[in-house]
From TrEMBL:
Its cofactor is Mg(2+). It is a multi-pass membrane protein. It is found in: Cell membrane. One of its GO terms (molecular function) is metal ion binding. GO terms for cellular component: plasma membrane. This is Uncharacterized protein. The chain crosses the membrane at residues 6-25, 119-140, 226-248, 269-294, 300-319. The keyword Transferase applies. GO terms for biological process: cell wall macromolecule biosynthetic process; cell wall organization; lipopolysaccharide biosynthetic process. InterPro entries: Glycosyl_transferase_4 (IPR000715). Mg(2+) binds at N141, D199.
Length: 334
């Protein structure tokens, strides 16, 4: 493994690289016409270039040099997942092919970092880790629809996961690189969006958070692994409940829509900054809860996780009544 640089140097380099790559990509995307146009299923009002998260993906790829054991698997999985997103940003891929590339990337990471192999065994631990990776990649993709949302959530989740397992080899460096890369991208996306992450960015963020979770899990006791679900809990709750509701209405799950709670909040008058702050406040509280019970024996970690998800589900339902689905999202494909 390469000698580790000081954290402050890694942070500055990651921030600068992410910003400069995103800025350069913005000019190229505008010139080539790779933009998202406004529509009834989107929240933005002007054509905006996409794919700016390529800088975050590059930073994570370079930072993998300090991850230690499993860095090659991490790098391969990142290239497959973020590469699928980049290809989709440039020319839409069939959903099945996109999912296949995500699964291949997730399998590379999951094989190197199976979840609780001493308890589940390597094959089952790999399968559960694969679901965790592909799930988070898609959750970040689903919730990348409001300025600053996906980026701030990845930043906070990365720091929370790193604090849960401070002794995990390379975890702190990877978390700092991801957080700094998010900070480098944010000026172009928040509070006003001049550039979108695109699928390359949302895939890289979800993959990065999943990787941090799996590396952290390797240092936690089996009964504490539940805590890994707390830093990304607001993303999982919003995405999960929205998917369940859409499935119940027999709608196409991968079709673009405006039914996530954050989208409904913006549609009912909340600013992008206000929604971003609301979700960030939950994540800060969830990370604090995870750290508060991290040293406690079972069943406290499971109880804390269950409490957070029950509270989040109830809050989602209450706010959902305040912010009902927009009329244009009511069509059923059944």
């Amino acid at each position: 493994m390469n000698p580790m640089p000081p954290l402050w140097m890694l942070a500055i380099a990651s921030l600068a690289a992410s910003f400069l790559l995103a800025w350069g990509w913005r000019g190229w995307a505008l010139h080539r016409g790779h933009v998202d146009h406004p529509g009834e299923r989107r929240l933005h009002q002007v054509p905006t270039p996409r794919g700016g998260g390529i800088g975050i993906a590059v930073v994570l790829l370079l930072a993998s040099a300090w991850l230690g054991e499993g860095r090659e698997a991490f790098a391969l999985g990142l290239v497959l997942c973020a590469g699928a997103g980049l290809a989709d940003d440039l020319r839409p891929l069939p959903p099945a092919l996109k999912l296949l590339l995500q699964a291949a990337g997730g399998l590379s990471l999951a094989w190197a970092f199976p979840l609780l192999p001493e308890w589940l065994g390597h094959p089952l631990g790999t399968a559960v880790a694969l679901l965790f990776v592909v799930g988070l990649v898609n959750v970040w993709n689903f919730l990348d629809g409001s300025n600053g949302m996906a980026t701030t959530q990845a930043l906070l989740a990365a720091l929370g996961l790193a604090l849960l397992a401070p002794s995990a080899p390379g975890l702190g460096w990877l978390a700092v690189a991801l957080a700094a890369a998010c900070l480098g991208f944010l000026p172009l996306n928040f509070p006003r969006a001049r550039l979108f992450l695109g699928d390359v960015g949302s895939h890289a963020l979800g993959y990065g958070v999943a990787a941090l979770g799996l590396v952290a899990a390797s240092q936690l006791e089996a009964g504490q692994a539940w805590l890994l679900l707390l830093p990304p809990s607001v993303m999982l709750i919003d995405a999960g409940l929205t998917l369940v509701a859409r499935a119940g209405r027999r709608q196409v799950l991968w079709q673009a829509h405006r039914e996530h709670l954050y989208q409904r909040a913006v549609a009912h008058g909340w600013s992008h900054a206000g929604v971003c702050a609301l979700y960030a406040a939950w994540t800060v509280a969830a990370c604090a809860l995870a750290l508060a019970v991290a040293g406690l024996a079972p069943p406290w970690p499971l109880a804390a996780c269950a409490l957070a998800y029950v509270a989040g589900t109830l809050l989602h339902a209450a706010l959902g009544r305040r912010w009902p689905r927009p009329g244009e999202t009511l069509e059923s494909v059944g």
